[in-house]
Amino acid sequence: MEQNNYLGTEKVGVLLRKFAIPCIFSLIISCLYNIVDQIFVGNGVGYLGNAATGIIFPITVIGWGVSLFFGDGAAADLSVSFGKNETQEIPTSVGNSILCSFLGGVVIIAISYLWGDNLLRLIGATDANLSLAHD
């Protein structure tokens, strides 16, 4: 198997374009998805539906944050291991990251179910949109 170490030999500008442009496009697509989703919810359910999705969004962001915390940590560890040519520990590191990310999601779900309405009210739910936030 031929190894290509272009990260260590390529110019920074080329690498920046190679990695930043797909990242920017993925962020733009994600933002467009959220905007279009809110348009459909607003047209289909109404303003209370938009309020309900706005209430749930912080819980979603916390879930993303937990998964990125473990995923980015594993990616950094993977890069350092490849740089040092110490690849024996990579499967353990990636496996631990996946397990911790999964368990973090389970904890978020458990907290959401245990606190239920109180958590939604803490975030900003009102009587008018509480049932839609549950849905």
Please characterize this protein's 3D structure:
The chain has 135 residues and is mainly α. It folds into two domains: 10-44; 48-135, no CATH class. The chain is built from six helices and no strands. It has helices at 6-9, 12-44, 47-84, 90-115, 117-123, 130-134. The longest helix has 38 residues, at 47-84.
Describe the structure using short key phrases.
135 residues; single chain; mainly alpha; flat
- Global outline: flat
Radius of gyration: 21 Å
The H-and-E topology, N to C, reads as HHHHHH
Question: What class would the helix/strand composition place it in?
Answer: mainly alpha
* Low-pLDDT stretches: none
Extended strand count: 0
Number of helices: 6
Which helices and strands, and how do they pair?
Layout: H1 6-9, H2 12-44, H3 47-84, H4 90-115, H5 117-123, H6 130-134
Brief sketch in words of this structure:
The chain has 135 residues and is mainly α. The protein is built from six helices and no strands.
